[in-house]
What we know:
Chains A, B: Keywords: Metal-binding. Chains A, B: It comes from Arthrobacter psychrolactophilus. Chains A, B: It holds the Pfam family HMA. Chains A, B: GO terms for molecular function: metal ion binding. The structure is a homodimer. The first copy, chain A, is an alpha+beta fold. The first copy, chain A, has a single domain (3-71), classed as Alpha-Beta Plaits. Helix content of chain A is 31%, strand content 35%. The first copy, chain A, is built from two helices and four strands; from the N terminus they run βαββαβ. The first copy, chain A, has helices spanning 15-26, 56-66, and strands at 3-10, 31-37, 43-50, 69-71. In chain A, α1 (15-26) packs across α2. Chains A and B meet through α1 of A and α1 of B.
Amino acid sequence: MSHTITVNVSGMTCGHCVNSVTEELTELKGVESVTVDLNSGGLSEVTITSTLTLDSAEIGEAVAEAGYLLVSNDA
Amino acid sequence: MSHTITVNVSGMTCGHCVNSVTEELTELKGVESVTVDLNSGGLSEVTITSTLTLDSAEIGEAVAEAGYLLVSNDA
């Protein structure tokens, strides 16, 4: 079974940023796909599909590793 | 003797963009250094120091190779 989670990430501005975030998130265990709806200068929606349930802490760490900030998806 | 030229490049938004442009320009023959004053969402000033005189056509090609647009520096 696949799990899908969408989170908001700030600070992403271009395709290189998309690549960086996608690369870091893809390294998380169980991740099958990462899709980014880039909103340069605002919050980008990042959707992650995985075989395992991901917690926001590990997603936040991966996003930070890429150099960006995970923003609460309740915002 | 060193030559210095400053050109305007549009479309650069982040440090990755700076790296891409710097990398392509550094590959040009004679280039010693590349400095970018990033202006995300506007024109970024790119200053190139080289031992040989560079023409704007080769600079424009390198910038395009990185995925950005050289704008006339008379503008």
